[in-house]
Amino acid sequence: MWKKSKEASAGGGGELDDEHDGGGEAEFEKGVGPKRYSYSELAAATSNFSEEMKLGRGGFGNVYKGCLKIDGEDRRVAIKKFSESSVQGRKEFEAEVKIISRLRHRNLVQLIGWCDSCKGLLIVYELVSEGSLDRHIYKNTRLLTWPQRYKIIMGLGSALRYLHAEWEQCVVHGDIKPSNIMLDSSLDAKLGDFGLARLVDHGVRPATTKVVLGTAGYIDPELVNTRRPSAVSDVYSFGIVLLELVTGRRPVEEPDDSDELFVLARWVWRLYRRNAVAEAVDERLMRRERDDDDDGSEVVGERRRRRQQMEMEMERALVVGLWCAHPDRSERPSIARAMHVLQSTPDVVKLPVLRPQMFSGDTFHTVTMGGDGYSDLSFGVTSSSTGSDTSTSGYNSRSDNK
């Protein structure tokens, strides 16, 4: 399917036809699907991959903004260019194109086209206007309101429900984190970056993997033992993102004035144990609510009702986040069950008062970098990792992707 072939250009001049010089016939070339572009087309769209057009850098290469003629109209796109020397990059390229080309959901980043050329591997995506979620949580001056965060949670959950249960096979994403969640102009979530994705038949036990790849802080710790990426692993990552959205804190942080590494899930569970989980809510959200109270623009009763609804949703999201990120994967819900509880059910999630420990001392595992830019988990060592991104960046329209 991906055999190398070299064909002389029909136009003469001795140059290879870069429209077809990288691979043979592919399944997604047949019928309606993403377009196969030539390298020269994508180079022209990005001013020859100039620094001015660069959006960011990921584990296997760079992402550029560009403009292509699509259906007779100029359209802004994001183009991921894989590193030439990356063996894992070739695997990611094939996984992304094969899987995403077959998926259709409003909360997934749209694949527009691809290029498999001797000059490079490239994937073309829609350019999602508001960039990645991590920037909105940590870098933007405009604070995401709770209704906006709740909408993002619902969109991400809808995408995962489609991937895990509604498509013809179960799609395990494998790298759910804020930098892989894009936001459009309406702040609807779009999940992207399927480089670590796997297809598993429904009801079939996932196969083992030789190396556990992912991002520190978001990766399911039980993968260290099982080495079987599954929908349950995605649910763990979803739970961490839930906690991150409600608290405004990263999943793992270096200690400031103490010797203990801050682990978000552990901290929220301690508050849950004290029946004080509401204390984990992002203080900026509560400050905003107090400021809104001072402006006198709402009737007191309506303001009280709105605040009670918001507080109930935030507390429920924190508890569901802990449930999804339960150390014991057998205790985690399916994404459909988690979404049901999040949306409207009065069901109460019962969690143990003390957070179960899967490893001695509940240690956080060391993350070591591989040559291709992904992380691998070491065993049984307390980490000083910050939980920073170690995987391919998302596709966004911001120039600052640091």
UniProtKB/TrEMBL annotation:
Keywords: ATP-binding, Kinase, Nucleotide-binding, Serine/threonine-protein kinase, Transferase
GO CC terms, sorted: plasma membrane
Residues bound to ATP: 81
Region annotation Disordered: where it falls in the sequence: 1-31, 288-308, 381-402
SMART domains: S_TKc
Comp. bias regions, Basic and acidic residues: 21-31
Protein name, UniProt field: Protein kinase domain-containing protein
Origin species: Sorghum bicolor (Sorghum)
Taxonomic lineage from the root: Eukaryota, Viridiplantae, Streptophyta, Embryophyta, Tracheophyta
